[in-house]
Amino acid sequence: MAALTLRRLIVSGNSSCNSGGSLLPMNLVQMLPKCLPLKRLSDGSMKVCIIGAGAMGTLYGMRLAMSGVNVCFVEKNEIAIANIQRQGLRMSGIDGDHEMPFTISSNTADLDPVDIVFVHTDTNNTRAAGEQAQKILKSSGFAITFQNGIGNVEILQNTLGHDRVLGGISYHSARLHQPGHSVHTNANTTWIGELNGERSTRARQLASVLNNAGFSVELTDSINAVIWTKFVLNCAVNPICALTGCRTGEIGLSLTGRQFQSLVLDELLRLLQAKQIEPIDSDLRATIDGFSGRLFNKPSMLQHMENGLETEIDSLNGAAVREAVALGLHFPYNEAVTLLIKTRNEHVIKMLTEPAIDYEALEAAAVQT
């Protein structure tokens, strides 16, 4: 199956990929190439561990493996581990339908040392991912994070050391159909960079590896600005969708939705200004307005909410509130969003994991008292 899958991907390339659904500044979209054809150039000597076999981890791991990179996975979800051990990973969507066997474990002690770790967990598991990375990385190895939010880089640096972490941002989107099966929904640029701005040999080599795997890569000397730009985009879209149940484009179709989004965004732009961070998009407001009226994907936070998973709100709007407080600013709208997301998230998790509540009995008891 693996050989057949590889031939299918090479023949089809990524001709069906498009750039229409990612949170990428519109003024940059026209400057970037479409998805690149996959090339099998690696001889398997490079070893990569993907920590987190979710939607995005599957996408990056599958493409890297198909280009010849030796890839293994670390995952804590027992159902995902069982599915992948039994039938391999499956990726469908805009790249076609592909399956491939992988080595996967919840314990890095079961795996060989690797050259690079890709961190694709949600932000609630960054510290644990760093600890796993420390155990499996070769002494010369390093980690790169493609997570949403801010603070992930610093957590990984605290565990691995400042010189063993690269920053990354992915403007691809994918959803998890079921554990072990990812659906690639939209494709765009992958940004990587050294945190000190250096265009190092290892960063250039990683960019080449990702290019060979069919990713359009931008090696930047301003990865911090890239991370903060996507942070603002995520904060202005994801939680509003998670609270309302609307897809991205449905917010743009609602007058009140756009009004509330604008109030949240006002505070976020003030934060960038206060921190003297120049975003890679010269007009974030116009960009957000643009795709809020034309894209109809489900942001990851809405998917987490619907599936009863803990959201990443503390690394998004919650982080914005903490940054504001440190600067003596007050962000009431982002604080409200954070509290409401947590309240709804707790309720949904309880409804999906605990015995059903007999509301009629509770109402009757309340009347009697």
Distance between the termini: 66 Å
CATH topology of the largest domain: Rossmann fold
**Rg from C-alpha positions?**
21 Å
- Percentage of helical residues? 40-55%
The strand order across the widest sheet is 5-2-1-6-7-8-11-12
What is the arithmetic mean of pLDDT? 89
Proportion of beta-strand residues: 15-25%
Helix/strand/pairing class, anyone?
A: alpha/beta
Count of separate structural domains = 2
* Strand/helix succession: HHEHEHEEEEHEHEEEEHEHHHHHHHH
Number of helices: 15
Largest sheet: 8 strands, mixed
What is the CATH homology-level superfamily of the largest domain? Answer: NAD(P)-binding Rossmann-like Domain
Number of strands: 12
Overall outline: globular
List low-pLDDT spans. 1-34
CATH class of the largest domain: Alpha Beta
- CATH hierarchy: architecture of the largest domain: 3-Layer(aba) Sandwich
Structural write-up:
With about 375 residues, this protein is an alpha/beta fold. The chain has two domains: about 1-220, NAD(P)-binding Rossmann-like Domain (Rossmann fold, 3-Layer(aba) Sandwich), CATH 3.40.50.720; about 225-355, N-(1-d-carboxylethyl)-l-norvaline Dehydrogenase, domain 2, CATH 1.10.1040.10. It has helices spanning about 1-10, 25-30, 55-65, 80-85, 125-135, 150-160, 200-210, 225-245, 250, 255-275, 285-290, 300-305, 315-325, 330-355, 360-369; strands at about 45-50, 70-75, 90-95, 100, 105, 115-120, 135-145, 165-170, 175-180, 180-185, 190-195, 215-220. The protein has an eight-stranded mixed β-sheet, with helices on both faces. It has a four-stranded mixed β-sheet with strand order 4-3-10-9. Helix 8 (about 225-245) runs parallel beside helix 12. The relative contact order is 0.12. Residues about 1-35 have low confidence and may be disordered.
